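User: quick one, sequence for these tokens?
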């Protein structure tokens, strides 16, 4: 039995004598444990949409992290994505997104609470705080060691899911970019980790151009711990997790706490809070410009047309 009272249904071997236990009841993610429950594996499971984050997916992800946190057997949590990419960011307009936003019987219930009924800037501020910001901070402070296993594209809000983990392991094909500046006229995502992860100047460059960095550069920045081939990524991430799972739980958490409290003392959490409010100001600007229709900019404002999926260029040193 691996988690809080939920019966595992799907049991299969991973080839090393360790059974996988799956927890049912999720629509947009998968939750499994391996190694007698010592490692939890959460898989974002909207592969056709490149794991674009709907409200349903984010609420399920929160529940999955809570399952792992509540389970005293779990020492390490791996967060990964099914399909071609880890996550292409927030879902802006798939059928699932439209359905769960639109009033009616299929609306996601979280649009009717946490400020969702208030309207205007107040609604957006409260909803984004709960479902894009505070949840990400909570996952960053999870009482377990977390590893993001990323591959393919990690765009904008996809970065938030990688950054809130303690360690990041990347497939060699991984591309990291925040395109909301050039495509949506926004000053970055809600959880503004950019200067801390990329460095201040690189953060400005990447946000002002929408250009990307690859796995090797992310490794040289210290953002990524390991880079593996696509074929090796899953197995090697589990091997890495097994090494970390050997560390007794007390020092493991205290190591995490010491580092997190150090960067908090350097201003990390306060800066995140401040930048979330700046982000809300940016949304309010576009809402006013568009008469309340949209909370972001469009091609009419000189931005790239994100619906046409313009190519994301690498931030090459010799290309203007
Ligand atoms: Zn936002």
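Assistant:
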């Amino acid at each position: 039995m691996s988690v809080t009272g939920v019966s595992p249904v799907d049991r299969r071997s991973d080839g090393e004598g360790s059974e996988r236990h799956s927890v049912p009841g999720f629509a947009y993610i998968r939750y499994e444990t391996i190694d007698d429950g010592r490692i939890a594996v959460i898989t974002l499971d909207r592969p056709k949409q490149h794991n674009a984050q709907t409200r349903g997916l984010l609420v399920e992800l929160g529940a999955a992290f809570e399952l792992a946190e509540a389970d005293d057997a779990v020492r390490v949590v791996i967060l990964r994505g099914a399909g071609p990419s880890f996550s292409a960011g927030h879902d802006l307009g798939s059928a699932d997104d439209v359905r769960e936003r639109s009033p009616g019987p299929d609306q996601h219930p979280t649009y009717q609470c946490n400020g969702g009924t208030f309207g205007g800037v107040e609604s957006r501020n409260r909803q984004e705080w709960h479902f894009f910001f505070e949840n990400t901070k909570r996952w960053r402070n999870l009482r377990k060691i977390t590893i993001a296993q990323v591959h393919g594209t990690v765009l904008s809000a996809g970065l938030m899911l990688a950054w809130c983990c303690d360690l990041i392991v990347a497939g060699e094909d991984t591309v990291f970019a925040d395109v909301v500046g050039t495509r949506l006229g926004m000053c970055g995502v809600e959880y503004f980790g950019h200067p801390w992860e990329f460095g201040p100047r690189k953060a400005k460059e990447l946000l002002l151009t929408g250009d990307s960095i690859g796995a090797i550069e992310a490794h040289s920045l210290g953002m990524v711990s390991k880079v593996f081939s696509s074929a090796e990524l899953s197995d090697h991430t589990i091997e890495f997790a097994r090494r970390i799972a050997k560390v007794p739980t007390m020092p493991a958490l205290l190591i995490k706490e010491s580092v997190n409290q150090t960067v908090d003392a350097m201003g990390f959490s306060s800066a995140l809070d401040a930048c979330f409010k700046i982000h809300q100001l940016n949304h309010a600007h576009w809402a006013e410009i568009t008469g309340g229709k949209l909370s972001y900019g469009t091609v009419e404002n000189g931005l790239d047309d994100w619906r046409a999926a313009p190519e994301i260029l690498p931030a090459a040193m010799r290309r203007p």
